[in-house]
Amino acid sequence: MAYSEKVIDHYENPRNVGAMDKDAQEVGTGMVGAPACGDVMKLQIKVGADGIIEDAKFKTYGCGSAIASSSLLTEWVKGKSLDEVQAIKNTDIAEELELPPVKVHCSVLAEDAIKAAIADYQSKQ
Ligand code: FES
Ligand code: FES
Fold first, then answer.
1. Domain span including residue 22
2. Would the ipTM clear 0.85, i.e. be above it?
3. N or C, which end of the chain is more exposed by having fewer CB within 10 Å?
4. Which of the following is catalytic: 19, 24, 36, 37?
5. What CATH number is attached to the domain comprising 85?
6. pTM listed for this prediction
């Protein structure tokens, strides 16, 4: 199976790899696993007082498509409101990265992780 150039770019130069303090009130953490393959993705957001996402970080233990999906998503969410981010679909990610059908679940992982991060953030407010 061939990876698209965009996947390879994010895989080789992942954006926003790292971690934030999960106990901080302004940080939301989402950690999800894919039952199909065992890959695990952690995505974190830091939300400003104005409700806009200031920063995002990820750590993904998984395939190239999962790493690329989370890397791309951390870029997309910065500067957006939580409502705007809720509207991002895994299909947007799959389309941008030109994921083949067998790799679409990797983008689902990213959507699930960001939704879990938002839910975690909201539960702390
Ligand atoms: Fe092997 Fe995802 S299936 S890393
Ligand atoms: Fe399972 Fe990519 S193969 S997340």
1. 5-124
2. no
3. N
4. 37
5. 3.90.1010.10
6. 0.93
